[in-house]
From TrEMBL:
It comes from Alkalicoccus halolimnae. The chain holds residues 70 to 387 of 387 of the full protein. The keyword Transmembrane helix does not apply. The lineage of its organism: Bacteria, Bacillati, Bacillota, Bacilli, Bacillales. This is DctP family TRAP transporter solute-binding subunit. Belongs to the bacterial solute-binding protein 7 family. One of its GO terms (biological process) is transmembrane transport. Keywords: Signal, Transport. One of its GO terms (cellular component) is outer membrane-bounded periplasmic space. The keyword Transport applies.
Length: 318
């Protein structure tokens, strides 16, 4: 039995390391009977192609970031809302683990579209890079920002006055180098490992949002498995929750110094103050209403419930 697991990142990057460890756990627990082959990004197409491969059962497992399902599952745009979660990534991961809004109601929306999320997890806080300084909303005026495909990510940057364009990360290095786009957002490990700092002069520690992704299976495939096999998959998913968090934390810590120490391609790193973040937060807040109205039938219910859960967990949601 060999199953396929496609990820949106390349060897060594967080999603790939996660998928490989998950495959090893499943193999161990089944005494080698269940084998999973991990396909790195690029092997099977773009991130959006990979969504279709999962729904079409060309692959059994996929790591899918909600940023690439924005039109298929509009409720999934919730993760594009900036300054919604807390600044404590560990707490954010606990919220992702326990949230009924996400694991029941949002997951049901994905299942209707042939995607069964088994866990939602963070790859760390996102930062901005640009070929100019990004410190105030004014700096975003007319700025050509690259984003993932989600309509609400575009909306969020339009709220800052930017001119966002969606593209696959496979085209992003060249896009930044040739000036098709001027900046982008990602966790630090990814900025460094994809070498975006080579073609960007500035990085802003903005922590404006966290990167959320999902470990998913094709629902027909999963439901067709016997209980013991489902149990092995579920157990492995549970064990990977903490591992996933640790993998991203190690990489995000480690790669910051790689950007700082790259003398050949110097990047000016600037950390926003709380006041500076507030200027963005204020412009980001109305986007929540846009989501409630345009995020699909259950958007309002899901966001209201998630806001309550964040508050119960000790966060503030304004
Ligand atoms: O920026 C992107 O689109 C990519 N970023 C990460 C952290 N993972 C994969 C994704 O496609």
């Amino acid at each position: 039995q060999e199953w396929r697991f496609v990820v949106e990142e390349t060897q060594g990057q967080v999603q790939y390391v996660y998928a490989q460890e998950f495959a090893d756990l499943v193999s161990e627990k089944s005494d080698g009977a269940l084998e999973i082959d991990v396909y790195e990004f690029g092997a099977l197409g773009s991130e959006v192609d990979q969504v279709e491969q999962l729904t079409g059962n060309v692959v059994e497992f996929a790591i899918i970031s909600p940023g690439f399902t924005g039109t298929l599952v509009p409720e999934g745009n919730i993760f594009a809302l900036q300054f919604l979660f807390t600044d404590d990534q560990e707490l954010n991961q606990e919220i992702l683990n326990d949230s009924e809004a996400i694991n029941e109601h949002l997951a049901a929306k994905y299942e209707e579209q042939g995607i069964m999320p088994l866990s939602f997890w963070t790859e760390g806080a996102m930062q901005w890079t640009g070929n100019s300084e990004l410190r105030t909303p004014e700096d975003f005026e007319g700025f050509q920002m690259r984003t993932q495909e989600s309509p609400l990510i575009l909306e969020s940057y339009e709220a800052y006055g930017a001119n966002p364009t969606a593209m696959s990360w496979g085209e992003l290095y060249t896009g930044l180098q040739q000036g098709a786009v001027e900046g982008q957002e990602n966790p630090i490990f990814f900025i460094a490992d994809a070498n975006f700092n080579e073609v960007q002069d500035h990085m802003t520690i903005s922590n404006h949002n966290m990167y959320v992704t999902m470990t998913t299976v094709n629902p027909d495939f999963y439901e067709g498995l016997d209980e013991a096999t489902q149990g092995i998959i579920d157990e492995s998913i549970e064990e990977m929750r903490q591992r996933g968090f640790d993998i991203q934390q190690e990489q995000n810590d480690e790669f910051l110094s790689q950007i700082e120490d790259d003398d050949e391609n110097p990047t000016e790193i600037y950390e926003l103050s709380e006041d500076e973040r507030d200027a963005f937060r204020e412009l980001a807040l109305p986007v929540r209403d846009y989501y409630r109205e345009n995020g699909g039938d259950d958007a309002e219910m899901i966001l209201d419930m998630l806001e309550e859960e964040i508050e119960e967990a000790g966060g503030t949601v304004e």
